[in-house]
Amino acid sequence: MSCQHTVDVGAYLFGSLELKERSAFERHLGSCDTCQAEMLRLAPLPGLLGRLSLADVENLDEIPSPPKPNHHRRVLILCAAVLAVLALAGGVLFLKPPSAPTWAAQDQATGVNASVSMVTKSWGTEMWFTLHNVRPGARCKVMVFDRDGQREIGGWWGSDHAPDERIPGSTSFRLDRIDRLEVSDESGPLVTLRP
Fold it and tell me: Which residues cross the membrane (predicted)?
């Protein structure tokens, strides 16, 4: 099975998509197994490329060409390549990412119902919110508090969205260091989410 959006995965990973394109792709990514598999396959590339120094890139044309392999060596290389492809295919087909922890809460005073799925990343934590009963036209934000009392804003969004739409957020805090998430709008706190 293929998807026309798999070409967007690389642009997404390297931060080349415009804000609207990024939001649309993130919504698509939540429901497309093909794009999710491509994301898993390509996810290491930005980190690997980030390890290259300017000298490495400048000297790419100075890499010596390998010696010509003999027939026996070609057969071994071909077998190794086939095994690598089979291992990669098996990993993509059978490797499922661990399920993301989900926190949920409903505030009795405001009536706002919220849940958040969180994914550990090398840079911190990715968050995906769903919110219900938020006043239309509100400008919402999430404040992330860690266990040491530090805090940072994890995202801003407008409340005029479909009820089932997942809203992205992020924080530099590691998942195991997050104490709570507080969602608010201009009128004040709407709901607090905890593990």
Answer: 75-95
Bridge partner residues of 113 (DSSP): 106, 132
Paired with 141 in beta bridges are 156, 184
CATH, residue 121: 2.60.40
Dist CA 55 CA 63 (whole Å): 12
Within 13 Å and on the Cβ side, how many CA atoms surround 109?
7
pLDDT tens readout for residues 145-190: 999 999 999 999 998 888 788 999 999 999 999 999 999 999 999 9
CATH code of the domain covering residue 55:
1.10.10.1320
- Does a structural domain hold residue 13? yes
Partners of 181 in the beta sheet?
144, 193
* 82's tokens: 């086939």
Backbone dihedral angles phi then psi of residue 53, each to the nearest 5 degrees = -95, 170
Report field, pTM of the whole predicted structure over 0.70: no
**pLDDT (tens digit per residue) in 79-122:** 666 666 666 655 554 555 556 789 999 999 999 999 999 999 99
- What six digits make up the tokens of 65? 């060409």
Phi-psi region of 137 (alpha: psi -120 to 50; beta: other; left: phi over 0): left
